[in-house]
């Protein structure tokens, strides 16, 4: 008796689908970025926190940072502790509620955010160097449609 199965047999040489390729590209860019961050001994989560804090000149409470990063408040506090220790952020009393604190970037923190942004761009460029300018434009157009213009 022959059984008909509706799943695909495992083929080691299976052609990766588009989703696999997108994930592989994202991993490659992240790896290149993480290596570049290594020169400042900044973790990707610390880098994200610095970027979020740079978007608010008046600072933000640690709970807001946690929400923005989609991490637990305790984890946001640990990230903030490490950034403060390095002199990249400062804690101050919230002007609207003295019991609360706000986190703001220091001048060194702002400089670091600018340098990290350059490094992030360069890391992506290195990964995409294999593309011709026309392929790069096409990729940009396609990805912009998929992720939406709000990114």
Structural notes for this entry:
- With 151 residues, this protein is mostly helical.
- The protein has a domain at 41-145: Arc Repressor Mutant, subunit A, CATH 1.10.10.
- It has 6 helices and 2 strands; from the N terminus they run ααααββαα.
- It has helices at residues 18-37, 44-54, 62-69, 73-85, 107-128, 133-147; strands at residues 89-94, 97-105.
- The chain has a two-stranded antiparallel sheet.
- α1 crosses α5 (107-128) and α3 (62-69) packs across α4 (73-85).
Q: What is the first-to-last residue Cα distance?
A: 54 Å
Q: Topology as H/E string?
A: HHHHEEHH
Mean pLDDT: 88
Residue share in β-strands: 5-15%
The CATH superfamily name of the domain at 41-145 is: Winged helix-like DNA-binding domain superfamily/Winged helix DNA-binding domain
Number of strands: 2
Class by helix and strand content? mainly alpha
Characteristic key phrases:
single chain; 151 residues; Arc Repressor Mutant, subunit A; 6 helices; 2 strands; elongated
């Amino acid at each position: 008796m022959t059984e008909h199965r509706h799943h695909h047999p495992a083929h080691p040489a299976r052609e990766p689908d588009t989703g696999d390729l997108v994930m592989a590209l994202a991993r490659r860019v992240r790896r290149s970025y993480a290596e570049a961050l290594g020169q400042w001994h900044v973790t990707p989560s610390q880098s994200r926190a610095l970027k979020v804090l740079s978007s608010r000149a008046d600072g933000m409470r640690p709970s807001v940072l946690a929400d923005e990063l989609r991490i637990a408040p305790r984890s946001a506090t640990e990230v903030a502790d490490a950034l403060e220790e390095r002199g990249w952020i400062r804690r101050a009393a919230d002007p609207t509620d003295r019991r609360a604190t706000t986190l703001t970037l220091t001048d060194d923190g702002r400089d670091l955010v600018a340098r990290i942004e350059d490094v992030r761009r360069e890391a992506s460029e290195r990964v995409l160097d294999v593309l011709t300018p026309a392929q790069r434009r096409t990729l940009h157009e396609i990805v912009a449609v998929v992720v939406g213009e709000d990114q």
